Give the backbone structure.
Amino acid sequence: KAGVTQTPRYLIKTRGQQVTLSCSPISGHRSVSWYQQTPGQGLQFLFEYFSETQRNKGNFPGRFSGRQFSNSRSEMNVSTLELGDSALYLCASSRSSGGTNNEQFFGPGTRLTVL
Amino acid sequence: AQSVAQPEDQVNVAEGNPLTVKCTYSVSGNPYLFWYVQYPNRGLQFLLKYITGDNLVKGSYGFEAEFNKSQTSFHLKKPSALVSDSALYFCAVRDRSTNAGKSTFGDGTTLTVKP
């Protein structure tokens, strides 16, 4: 079974630009969550989508947004990029949003560098 | 609110010796608890989880973790460490009443196993 895939793996942007990251969950998984990982802040929860609906949102500004499609694939968008947005963005999928089948399987991440 | 503490930034052990990576948690209700491992330039990999029942949980690669409700701890253990176990380890907690994506991760513990 294929794992979680994220594209692109690496991205370099300049301040003020916007970026879209993509995540394809494991087949059959309907929950997709996004995290930002930085050396100083660790793993910070961005948002979770389940059945095309945002179920939870972390404490990030409105520049960070996401969506989920009917095939469970998800995208996140960051507008007006800032230097501090440089991070590894991780996508994780799980079979369910609640219940016991809730361990998350992570993709390799997208390394975003903002210059 | 839920939180996780990994009190040690770094754990060093010799190959063949037992290892322990500590984790304590705080949730308002009953917890789901997880351990993940991250190798350089990779996403997180699920190791094991505690849902309910037996306090000793066995996971991948010979790892196990002991749930202790009174001490609100979920320490990761392995009887005999391997050099290949060297990686960054994350503990995560989720209140059973919340959704999968709303897991809170610790700051991570870097495990170094020396030959």
In short: Chain B touches chain A at residues 32, 34, 36, 41-46, 49, 51, 90, 94, 98-108 (CB under 8 Å). The mean pLDDT of chain B is 92. The longest strand of chain B covers residues 87-95.
